Amino acid sequence: MLGSVRYAPDGEPAEDAIEAGASMLAAAEAGWEAVSAAVVAAAVAGVRQCWAGGWYPADLERIVRRETPGTTQAALVVDAVAAEAARPPAARPPRDPRWAGQLRDLGAEVWWPSDGGYLDALAARRRTSRFETAYDVLAALRTLARLPRITPLPAPPRTAGTSGPAGAAADRALGRIRGLLAKAEATDFAEEAEALSAKAQELMARHSIDEALLDRADGPRGGRTAGPSAVRIGIEGPYEQAKALLLDAVAAANRCRAVWAADVGFSTLVGFASDLEAAEMLYTSLLLQATTAMHRAADGLPRARKEPGGTGGTPPARGRSRRTRDFRQTFLVAYADRIRDRLAEATATATATASAASTPAAPDLLPVLAARELAVEETTGALFPDTAPVRLRGVRDADGWHQGRAAADRARLGEG
């Protein structure tokens, strides 16, 4: 029955197969508890197939939420992830340290009393019949079984830890960066937000340089880390292209590479661990700031058009002028374009300052950074040998372009 559900063609054949399967489960002679236990076992097997196919918990929930209507299937997939996580671990390589955090963020916990009681507990929670419950579960199992394989992430890097003075200094630097970004997100003044973000990027660049020199000083055979690693960052709609462009700008400034996979809704960042952490932190903050600035600009422009002269005509309808998809898409693309320049300038300034301050006994900074950038490029090429540029669409609103660049260009770098 599961085979007929999984492999039925999309559309009416799939709906018919799921309905037939749900009817069979609801009336199965083995009993509802036995059916429930079998369903949970099938869900665990489906999730493990996804892990083998390169998926992580957050990626799995995101793609199901993107591809299916409503929230039912995504919630059922989270239950399947929780059931798999509760099983004794099978023989497998070490998981990325982020794995446990993703499970916590998803709320992937076993809330039902037993495998045999899962379907009854689910029906009671959602107030659905046995047929409806079975239908939804089979639809979720079909979705899991039909997900494609994706590029697996490299194994988590081996590290010697960050204890001692070096670890304390790194913690202090990251604490200062988080503090600056938190202030940037909290302020209502765009100029202050951008100045704080620019200062945070300078500190990130300095922290990256310190990590590179420490890694080099710990030995010629890889130092404290095994090389570049990778993380996935979700790109949520709307305006996915513009958001992916912003992430690419942040990644480049932090000596990482970003590869966007539009069909599955995420970008993969490749880089050294400390740079990946900085890039993800800054992207999250800048995306929030850009979105806030975009809404502010969309709301304010119609009023600004009416104000000159005091008696101007009726401002254009927001739904057809400022508050359009073109305006917002163009705004975010322009913001990302200008942010790229400013972050690159901040990184170059920090690098030049650190290079000038290096002692004669210290290794030359620029070759160290060049070697790390080459390692990142080689790792990216090995993971994604067939990348292609993306043609941006919807970038045709002149006001959106000027407003977006202005939102990223009000503050001078280095202030804060």
UniProtKB/TrEMBL annotation:
Pfam families: DUF2786, DUF7168
Start and end residues of each DUF2786 domain: 172-211
InterPro entries: DUF2786, DUF7168
Domain DUF7168 span(s) in chain numbering: 243-358
Annotated region described as Disordered, given as residue ranges: 301-323
Superkingdom: Bacteria
Protein name, as recorded: DUF2786 domain-containing protein
